User: What shape does this take?
Amino acid sequence: DAKTTQPNSMESNEEEPVHLPCNHSTISGTDYIHWYRQLPSQGPEYVIHGLTSNVNNRMASLAIAEDRKSSTLILHRATLRDAAVYYCILRGLRGAQKLVFGQGTRLTINP
Amino acid sequence: DTEVTQTPKHLVMGMTNKKSLKCEQHMGHRAMYWYKQKAKKPPELMFVYSYEKLSINESVPSRFSPECPNSSLLNLHLHALQPEDSALYLCASSQLSQGYEQYFGPGTRLTVT
Assistant: This one.
């Protein structure tokens, strides 16, 4: 399984944008980039995924580098509720059901 | 309904007990998953069921026995567990197409004494 590298922790302020980076230099051409988050005392929650193009949904935006070796999850206006551990995961076509969670980034939001 | 429910929320069991964890979804998903999560660690995949058949077993000890009675239900039978098996057990479900986004339940907090 291709690996991802994320900072252990990040801190931001409420109502400001947050950019969460993820490096995946060994990504293969068919690997999708998925982001999940886990709020305290809850199960993980799907956030967004993409393959090559940038993606937007109601929760966040995903910016994917042209060479696909890195990506950035963007929370446009952070709230206290966005404090969570954010996981960047590569999902291959083969074994598409298999999610391998890395250590993730613990995001703290200051009021 | 995008909810995955898990029962019980908490479970304390002795090493000689037999217990079961239950998971249910009504989203029509044909894949269901069990994960184990130790404190301050990421979730680790244990089992995957696709179309009610076991498709992935991540070399989990036999004291954990999964069962998928139908497309909405997933059980995890526990027998002769060890204290190190104490963890949060998460169930998830997904479609078997498109983005394969997984929907997780809140988990069962298991303590083995």
Notes: The interface with chain A takes residues 4, 31, 33, 42-45, 48, 50, 55-56, 90, 92, 94, 96, 99-107 of chain B (CB under 8 Å). The mean pLDDT of chain B is 95. DSSP finds no helices and eleven strands in chain B. The first strand of chain B starts at residue 4 and ends at 7.
